[in-house]
Amino acid sequence: MKLFGILPTPPPLKAQSRVYDLKARLDWGEPALTILDVRDRTQFNSHHIMGAVCMPIHELISRASTSLELDRDIYVYGETDDETVEAAAQLRQVGYKNISELRGGVAAWKAVGYPVESGSSLLSA
């Protein structure tokens, strides 16, 4: 029996994710997601999750609204989990539907040995 049109899909986006959840989604291939780092530019330039986009929290809504679709899957992280929750709430308030708060942010990402970028170079944790 042949099954047509049935393709495996990645796990659904959760309101809160662990770094393992994001890594699994990235490893899926063609993840169709955006990773937002809402820390300030200095922190972002120091180190960030590979592929993350810098949108400091004070610029978040103005920048997101011009560059991200409202139904885009978005993983967001800040310096602290409180900052992450605040950024996610701002995005949800203006209509973004698929937001996941990445618990532990870049520190948790580095702690398990996932790759980070610094400026334009790739680093191992």
Could you write a compact summary of the structure shown?
With 125 residues, the protein is an alpha/beta fold. The chain has 5 helices and 8 strands.
Protein architecture, described:
With 125 residues, the chain is of the alpha/beta class. It has a single domain (17-113), classed as Oxidized Rhodanese, domain 1. It has helices spanning 19-28, 41-46, 60-67, 81-93, 105-111, and strands at residues 16-17, 33-37, 48-49, 53-54, 73-77, 98-102, 116-118, 121-123. Helix 4 (81-93) links the parallel strand 5 (73-77) and strand 6 (98-102). The longest helix is centred in the last third of the chain and has 13 residues, at 81-93. The radius of gyration is 15 Å and the shape is globular. The chain starts with 15 loop residues before the first strand and ends with a strand.
Question: What would the keywords be for this entry?
Answer:
single chain; 125 residues; alpha/beta; Oxidized Rhodanese, domain 1; five-stranded parallel β-sheet; three-stranded antiparallel β-sheet; 8 strands; 35% helix; globular
